[in-house]
Amino acid sequence: MIFKLRFICLFACPLFISASSISAPVPVAGVAPLELRIAVVSDGRADYFVRLLEESLKLIQQPYHIQYVKDIPARRMWWMLGSDDINLFYGMQSKEKDNDKQLVPVRNALTNGLIGQRVLLIRHADTAAFAQIRSVGDLKRTGLIAGFGAGWGDTKVWKAAGLPLYEHAAPWNTVYAMVAAGNRHVDYLPRGVIEVLKEARAHPELAVEQHLLFEYRADFGFYLNPSVAHYRPIIERALKAAEASGLKARLIDEAFGADIKALNLNRRLRLPLLPTPK
Fold this sequence. Notes:
Blueprint: E1 3-8, E2 34-40, H1 47-59, E3 64-70, H2 74-82, E4 88-92, H3 95-99, E5 104-105, E6 117-123, H4 127-131, H5 136-142, E7 146-149, H6 154-160, E8 165-168, H7 175-181, E9 188-192, H8 196-202, E10 206-208, E11 212-215, E12 220-224, H9 232-245, H10 247-262, E13 269-272
Parallel strand pairs: 2-3, 7-8, 11-13
Antiparallel strand pairs: 1-3, 4-12, 5-12, 6-9, 6-10, 6-11
Helix pairs in contact: 1-9, 1-10
């Protein structure tokens, strides 16, 4: 496994440094740096979450090192977190993760609930069919099947609403082509408002459904390996400081504001779903 290292502290330093050239951190008096090993993917999905973590720690003047592990399948990343190959990862908050003895939840909703606001990626040919939907019951009666990754917490919301779904165990990026094909037992993808337009740009064979907005209580959170459980109060304090200062709202707007505005959420028909079980 190849690791790319980055040393970040409160002082100016290069963004990317090879393992052989890393030097000891310059400490703030009496404050030891957090030593973090984080899994990320190269497609940019993790950028906001990493930036929120970094900027929040800077805000409270907490030095840190971050070591990145790139492009490991998501399910393996959770295994690596439990085995301490990495010590921080982010993912959907759930009762199962919160109760897992190999994980330590950091108590903060990282997107302020935006990931629980869902817009659909659909086939272009199905635009008229979705335009007729006025309720969750209408969607259920169509028999159209939602696509999710295997084990995703969102599946509980769809199942509780009685909506047909398909859980994709293979690499997630193959499911877009399955929807577009129209004969692979999956018809649409519910995607968060912070991700759907980026995915639509990457997959022009699919369309963004224009008038529905599904809403339920869900968010991402950071999770730590128990070996660094003592980092939790530090990271929680940093994230709270980011909220109080307006830093978090600014980072959300910079990362997602333009796309959220383009989705015209206030003009959409809002369809509440049951909250994710806790």
